[in-house]
Specification:
The complex is a heterodimer of chains A (about 110) and B (about 140). Chain A is built from three helices and no strands. By secondary structure, chain B is of the alpha+beta class. In chain B, about 40% of the residues lie in helices and about 15% in strands. In chain B, helix 1 runs antiparallel to helix 2. The mean pLDDT of chain B is about 90. The chains are: A mainly alpha (about 110), B alpha+beta (about 140).
Chain lengths: ~110, ~140
């Protein structure tokens, strides 16, 4: 059973800039908002890219372990633990971002 | 191993090094009774040369195997005239190593490997508790 890794290109990062577009009147905060949005989006997409590469390296090692090619057991266990931790971190970051988004949406205009 | 969990690479490097040490010691123990004729060199004891890598403060700390060394090539000359490899004087070469020493080092290498697995698991558990903040 092959496990396909997450590809970074299919996930678009949450950008605070998009929230400002539909008719919001806050212009003085736009400049810092854009910067914040861009760096946060970059951080999230960077984390997802790193997650993709970690998962693919763990997949490669898993395949070598299954075919009997793997010389050291700890290589695979360390890579899979790293991939698992990175997945949990990415999911936590995404949950926090969605929570923040929902808080903003709940604001009464 | 770049990324937020880079510090897990330190115990991982130690696990690789101790596994190589266990391999070398197993090779020594397996060849403890390998006899050679006096015209060749004896089975040489294998040693691992380990070197610390990076500084402990950065995440690239740990240990790595920087080379191998070989023991005495002369071995022990033993008088066995009935051995097919014996020379004119009836001498053959046995490897020059102490088996109790090898077994003791094997136990040390095994415990060192387990210690580093423990260090890895503690670090991983610490990261996991950090990930539960604010959940």
């Amino acid at each position: 059973m092959a496990i396909t890794p997450i590809r970074a290109s299919s996930i678009t990062p949450i950008n605070l800039e998009l929230l400002k577009q539909p008719g919001m009147a806050g212009s003085p905060a736009t400049a810092t908002g854009n910067e914040m949005g861009a760096s946060f989006g970059k951080a999230v997409s960077g984390a997802i890219e790193h997650l993709g590469s970690m998962q693919s390296s763990a997949d490669g090692l898993a395949q070598r372990a299954a075919t009997g090619d793997l010389q050291s057991v700890q290589d695979y266990m360390v890579a899979s633990t790293d991939a698992q931790l990175t997945t949990q971190l990415t999911v936590a970051v995404r949950n926090k971002a969605v929570e923040a988004f929902q808080e903003i949406m709940r604001m009464q205009v | 191993m770049a990324g937020p969990f880079e510090s897990l690479g330190t115990p991982a490097s130690a696990m690789s090094t101790f596994k190589t040490w266990i391999d070398a010691l197993a090779d020594n123990v397996a060849n403890a009774y390998t006899v050679r004729s006096t015209s060749e060199s004896a089975f040489q004891e294998r040693f691992i040369i380990a070197r610390s890598r990076g500084t402990g403060a950065s995440a690239d700390g740990g240990v790595e195997v920087s080379g191998v060394a070989y023991g005495d090539a002369n071995g022990r000359l033993v008088y066995e005239p009935n051995h097919p490899l014996a020379d004119a004087n009836g001498m053959v070469r046995y490897p020059d190593m102490d088996l109790t020493d090898q077994m003791t080092q094997l136990m040390v290498a095994q415990r060192a490997y387990q210690m580093n697995v423990g260090a890895f698991e503690r670090a991983r558990d610490a990261f996991q508790t950090a990930l539960t903040i604010g959940r």
